[in-house]
Amino acid sequence: MKAVIKAAAVPGLELRTVADPVPAEGEVILKILSTSLCGTDSHIYQWDNWAQQRIHPPRILGHEMYGEIVAVAKGVTTVQVGDRVAAESHVTCGKCFQCRTGNAHVCKNYKIMGIDRDGSFAEYVALPEQVCWKTAPEIPSDLACLQESLGNSVHAVLTEDVTGHTILVTGCGPTGLFAIAVARTAGAATIFATDISEYRLELARRVGADLAFNPQKADPSVILDQTSGEGVDAALEMSGHPTSIHMCFKYVKNAGRVVLFGIPSANVALDVANEIIFKGIRVHGITGRRLFETWYRLGGLFRAGLDIRPILTHTLPLEEFDKGFDLIHSGQCGKVVMIP
Amino acid sequence: MKAVIKAAAVPGLELRTVADPVPAEGEVILKILSTSLCGTDSHIYQWDNWAQQRIHPPRILGHEMYGEIVAVAKGVTTVQVGDRVAAESHVTCGKCFQCRTGNAHVCKNYKIMGIDRDGSFAEYVALPEQVCWKTAPEIPSDLACLQESLGNSVHAVLTEDVTGHTILVTGCGPTGLFAIAVARTAGAATIFATDISEYRLELARRVGADLAFNPQKADPSVILDQTSGEGVDAALEMSGHPTSIHMCFKYVKNAGRVVLFGIPSANVALDVANEIIFKGIRVHGITGRRLFETWYRLGGLFRAGLDIRPILTHTLPLEEFDKGFDLIHSGQCGKVVMIP
Amino acid sequence: MKAVIKAAAVPGLELRTVADPVPAEGEVILKILSTSLCGTDSHIYQWDNWAQQRIHPPRILGHEMYGEIVAVAKGVTTVQVGDRVAAESHVTCGKCFQCRTGNAHVCKNYKIMGIDRDGSFAEYVALPEQVCWKTAPEIPSDLACLQESLGNSVHAVLTEDVTGHTILVTGCGPTGLFAIAVARTAGAATIFATDISEYRLELARRVGADLAFNPQKADPSVILDQTSGEGVDAALEMSGHPTSIHMCFKYVKNAGRVVLFGIPSANVALDVANEIIFKGIRVHGITGRRLFETWYRLGGLFRAGLDIRPILTHTLPLEEFDKGFDLIHSGQCGKVVMIP
Amino acid sequence: MKAVIKAAAVPGLELRTVADPVPAEGEVILKILSTSLCGTDSHIYQWDNWAQQRIHPPRILGHEMYGEIVAVAKGVTTVQVGDRVAAESHVTCGKCFQCRTGNAHVCKNYKIMGIDRDGSFAEYVALPEQVCWKTAPEIPSDLACLQESLGNSVHAVLTEDVTGHTILVTGCGPTGLFAIAVARTAGAATIFATDISEYRLELARRVGADLAFNPQKADPSVILDQTSGEGVDAALEMSGHPTSIHMCFKYVKNAGRVVLFGIPSANVALDVANEIIFKGIRVHGITGRRLFETWYRLGGLFRAGLDIRPILTHTLPLEEFDKGFDLIHSGQCGKVVMIP
Q1: Predicted confidence (pLDDT) per residue in D74-84, tens digit
Q2: Which end of chain A is more exposed for a tag (fewer CB within 10 A), N or C?
Q3: How far is D282 from chain A (nearest CA, A)?
Q4: Does the pTM exceed 0.95?
C-alpha cells in the first residue's frame, strides 16, 4: 500500500509503497477514507527537538482518521467488517491507576497512533478494537476524521458547563475554532476570540464568535466593557502563547476558570498570587479526550447541530501531503484533510 | 390603584381599587408593566385545600412581574428610579444556614410575593431591593415578567450539564416548555417530550423538542429505540403526575439523573430498588431559582439566543384575569401575561 | 475440593466435594483464605422469591473473598502466583456505555461471583484477572475478605464529602456499621445511628456513632435538637425499611442529601413534594463499588486508621455455614467470616 | 482603651491609648479575649513595599480575634450582648456578582479588619454583625481566635474531598500545620509534609504528618516510593516558595490536584506543558474562607476531634507584641496569641 512515512531522522516525509499492515489479536484493519493533519505531525515533519526525542523512524504518521473496517483479527467482539469508524488515537493500558479510575486520558503508559505505532497517512492501518469509534452515517466522511481533534476541544470546553456563560478563546487555530463552535452549540452567552491572523479571526466569526479580534490591534479590555466589568466565566487557552495565557488569567472573573490546552514552547512566568490565588480561580490542564465520555458527548453535539464544516478548509489527495504541511505552516487554513 | 385580590376565603378573585403600596426601608415601588399567571395562582383562585391552609385574605396575588421603579425608600443602594426590573419572588432571610451557604433558594424562612405579602396583579407593588433583577432592555416587556417562571426551568435543566446529552421532559405546561427551550439552547443532543395535550405537544415541537408525543397513544419505548437502548442522560419531571414520574425513572439510563420539579398531589409509590438504587442514579429535588446564579445564567441564555416567545400564547389586560384563569384551566395555552 | 453449594431449587445449602475449578484464559485460581456471608447469600439460602428467579442451581455461593493466587491462565499480566488478593464481585463487560464512561458499577451486563458463576464458599475459585484486588499485607487475612462489603459503604458514604458534616445512618447491619466506621474516619462532625436491635446499636457505638438509638423507643427529633434544628447534612439509608427511608427524608436538612443503599422489599409511598422537591435535596441511588476508585479509597481509609475489627463478630470453619446463616437470621452478629 | 497601632508610615508598631470604638448601625462592640498574629501583620510591622501601598496609618492592626459582645447598635438581629464570637475578617459587599453567586470570598469590594478598618489588637473592636461567628463554648478562648486562620486551611484542604487520599503539604508555617491537622482529621491516607525548619517539621509530626522532611536534606522522591510511584492525590502549597510550588506539580499524580495558597513574592516560571497540561490536573487558587460554608465545616471539624492545641505555641499579653513579632521572624513558633 502507499503510505506517508518518516523514513529517516531528517526533516520532511516521503510517500512510499510499504507492506499492508497485519492485525494482531484484538485488532482490526481500517481502510482509510479520510485522515487529517495535526500540529503534532507538523513538528515531526519539521523534525524539531521534540520530534527528534520522540519519534523512532521508520514510522507512518497520522493519528486523526476515519475509515471502514475491512478485516478483524481473533478476539474482536464489538466491531465487524463493514463498520465505519473513527479512532481514538491514544491506546491506553487499561491497568494503571488512571485507567482504573476513569482518567484513562492521562494513562501513564499510553501509545499514540502515528507516533508510537504506525498511523493513518496510508491506505490501511491496524487498530486495536478498543479505540474504534463507530460513527453515525450522518457524519460526512471528510469531517469524520476530524473527531479526534474536535474531541480535544470538546474536552476543553465542557470541563465545566458553559451554557449561559461568557467565554474567551485565545488562539483560533483548529482546536480554538472547534472550541468556539462547541461553545456556540452549548449555548455560551458571549464568545470572545483572539488571534493575530485575520484569516483565522474570520473563521472564528463564521463558527460563532461574537467578537473576534487581534489583541495586537484592538484593546482586549473590550472584554471587560462587554461583561459589566467582570471578565469571562471561562477562558480557554488554545494557542500556547505566553501573551494569551496571561490574557486568560487577566480577563477571567474572580471564581471563574482557565482551561489550558495550548502547549507553550518554553516556561511561562506567572504572577501566581494575582493571576491565580487572589482571584480564587480553577485552572484545568487539558489533554486528549476523556475516554470515552468525550466521544459520546461529541456524538451528541453533532445531533444538537454542531457544524464544523467551515473549519475544514482544504481537502487533498494523500500524495499532496507536502502541500498540506505548507498550508499549516502558512496559517492560512483551518483543518487540512487528506484522502488516500 | 386597581388590583386583583383574594378578598375573602372563597373561590375566585376580585378586581378592586386599593391604596397604593408604601415602601418600607430598603424597598422600592415597582410600576407593573407585565405580570404573568402561574399554576400557584390558579390553586389560590380555585381555593383548594392547599390554598386554604396557606393564604390569609385579603391578599393581592401575583409573583411573576416586570416593571419600572418609580420610588425608592431609605437604604436602597443598588437600584434607582427608572430602572426596569423583574423580581425574584422569594424574599429570603439572609441569616439561616441555607442562606449563608449558597442555598438561599431553600431558605427556611422565605416569604413569597403574592402569597405571604402583596404581589403584582396590580398597578404597583412594594418590593425589597434585594429581589430586584435589572433586566437587559433587549428583553421585550411582555416576556420580561416570565423570567421568574423560566428561572425554575433553567434551574431544573442546568442542575447538571445537558450539552450533548439526551433529555426527556415529561409535562409540557409552561415550565416544561421552558425546559425544552433551555435544553435546546444548551445543545441537548435529543429532546423527548411527553404530554396528553396535543396543543402543548405542538408548542413543545415549536420550542425544540425532537420527538413530542402523547404516552397514552404512542409507546414511550421509542425513547429506547432512539437512544441505542440506553435511555436518556437526564429525565426532567415537570408535570407532577405519577405516571410521568415513573416514566422518568424507567427511561433514564443507569448512572443518569432524574430532576423532580412537578408537584404531585398525593404520595407516589416508588420501586426504590429498581427505579433508583440499582440504576445508580441521582435524583434532584428542584424548587425556585438559585439566588442569583440562575438569574445570571438566564440572562446569558437570552444572549445565547433563547427564544421563549412561542410560549407566551395570550396577553390580556389585568381586568380580564378571569379569562386568564379559564385559559389555564383549559390547558389550551402556554403562559398568560396580564398588562395592568 | 469441598464447597458450599445450592445443589437444587430448595431451601438450604449443602457441603459437597466438587471438582476443582479450571481457569479460562485471563483467569486465575484463588485459594480461599477467608470468605464472608452477605444478606444476598441469606436470601439464596432461604430460597425466597427473588432467589428462585435469579439463581440456577447447582451453584457454589460466595462473593466476598480473600485468598492467595495459586495458578494463572494464559493472558494474565497484572497478578501472579503468590499474590494475595480480594475480589471485586462484579465482573463487568467493559464494553457498554456505563463501562466506557467511568460507571462500570452499573454495567448493564455484569455477572456476579457466587450468583452468575461459582463463588468463594469453597477451597478454590476461578476469578477473572480484572477483579483481583491486591491487598496490603497489613490487612489481616480474616478482615481482608470484608473489603467487598465494606466497599459498598465506602461508596455510599463518600458519594459526597462528609468531613465536618453531620450524618444519619439508618440501619446498623454490617453495611450500616461499616458506614459509621468510614464516616468516623472521614471526620464526620456528628454521627447519628438508628436500629431496633440493641446488639447492633452497641456495635454502632463501638465503631464511632455519637448517638445510636432505637427510634421505636427514643424520639428521633433528638437529631434536630443536636443540629441547631437543621437536621443532618447527609442521611444514609442502609436498612431498606420504609420507616427508615422516611426518617432520612425528614431529618435531612434543606439542600442536603439522602443516600439510598438498603433494598426495600416493596414499593415505598413517598411524599415527593415535601420529602424531596421543597427540600431541594439530592438523592443518590448507590449499588456496588465504583470500579476501581472505591477500592483505592478503601485502601487509603485503612492507612488513615479505619478499624473494622469490631464489626467482624464471628469466625467459623466453612463446614459450619448453617451456624453462620443462623447468626445472620438472628441479627445477633456483625459480619460472619468462614475459613475453608 | 489600649491598642497596638501603626501610627505612622514607618516600621514597627506602638502601644497607645486610644478612644473606644463606636459601633455604626448594624455593628457590635467586641471585647477582645484573644487575638493572634498573622504573616500579614508581620509585613505591616516591617513596613515592606506591599504594606506601604496598602496601609494608611493610623490603623489598629489585627484580624484574627475572639471575644464577647458588649454592645450592639441599631439594626442588629442575629447576635446579642453576651455572645462569644470569632470574626470573619473579610467584610464583603453583598452586592457584587461574586457575593450574589456564593463566592463572597472573592468579593471584589471587600474590606479587611485591621487593614481597611481598625482591627483587634486592642481591648475592643467595632464589628459588622454579618462577620460575627458564634463559637461553641467547648472551644477554649485562646484557640477560638485562631479560627480565621484555620479557616484558610480548611478551605484549602477541603476544596476537594481528601478522605482516603494521599496528601503533600509544602510549608509547615501555621497554615501548613493547620492543613495537616485538618487532613488528618478528614481521614487522609498518608500525609507528606516539607519545610526547612526542623522546629516546624516536628510540629508537623505532632499534628499528624506521616512523613515530614526537609527537602534540602532528604530526597523528595520518597513520595513516589511510598505511593506506588504515583505521587499524591492532592498537593497543598502553603509556603509561597517557588521550589515548593514546583515540588507540588512534580509529585501530584496525573489527574490529581494542586491547591495554591502560599503567596510567592515574585513571578514563578512554570513548565505549563509538563507541570499542568500533560498531567491533566486541576489547580485551585485559594484565598480566604468560603462564606460561611468554611466556618460551618470548621465547627464540624472541632466536633470530629480536630486538635489544634499543638499549633498554638506562644501566648503573650498584648503589651508584648514586639516579642510576638520577633517569634514570627525567627520561625521558632506556631501561632502566637495575644491577650489584651
Answers
A1: 999 999 999 99
A2: N
A3: 5
A4: yes
